[in-house]
Amino acid sequence: MFRRLTDIVKDNTERYLDKACAPEEYADRLSHYGNQLVRNLHGHHGWEDHQFFPELSAADARFDTGLDTLESDHLALDQVLDTFTTQANRVIQLVQMDEAQAYEETGALCDTAAQIDAFLKRHLSDEEDLVVPILLHHKLRG
Ligand SMILES: [Fe+2]
């Protein structure tokens, strides 16, 4: 779901930069999908940090070696998501006030969306590598 939302945000942003999408439509879509992406990622990481990871840690000490990496990833991703939120809110406002400026600033937003995409690819695959063997070994989560 996170990857799909990131793809939607990236595609919409590229279409706007290619002038294949009207500014108002882009602003609406950015507001909707960008908000979903940020809220869902924050919610999911909160659940992992406070519930899921401690549960895995209690089940298997092997998990602790990778846990620091996953937790520091979450902190780094939080910063990228904050940057994304600031840039997206600004672009959405500028579409109404100064569309040329909105267009100009969308380039940086596009870079941030690409950073989120690259980050998620790596992070989700690291998580799978660490989590799945423990789930299977301990037959957790059915
Ligand atoms: Fe995570």
Mind explaining what this structure looks like?
This protein has 142 residues and is mostly helical. It has one domain (2-138). The protein has four helices and no strands. It has helices at 2-17, 23-59, 63-97, 99-138. It starts with a helix and ends with a helix. Bound molecules: fe (ii) ion. Fe (ii) ion is lined by residues 45, 48, 70, 74, 123, 127.
SSE topology sketch:
Elements: H1 2-17, H2 23-59, H3 63-97, H4 99-138
Bound molecules: fe (ii) ion.
Residues 45, 48, 70, 74, 123, 127 line the site of fe (ii) ion.
Key features?
mainly alpha; binds fe (ii) ion; 0% strand; 4 helices; single chain
* Low-pLDDT runs: none
Which value, in Å, is the CA radius of gyration?
A: 18 Å
Element-level helix/strand string: HHHH
Number of helices: 4
Terminal-residue CA separation: 22 Å
Share of β-strand residues: under 5%
Helix content: over 70%
Q: Count the strands? A: 0
Structural domain tally: 1
Mean pLDDT: 93
Shape type: elongated
Sheet with the most strands?
A: none
Bound molecule types: fe (ii) ion
Structural class: mainly alpha
Describe, in short, the structure shown.
By secondary structure, this protein is an all-alpha fold.
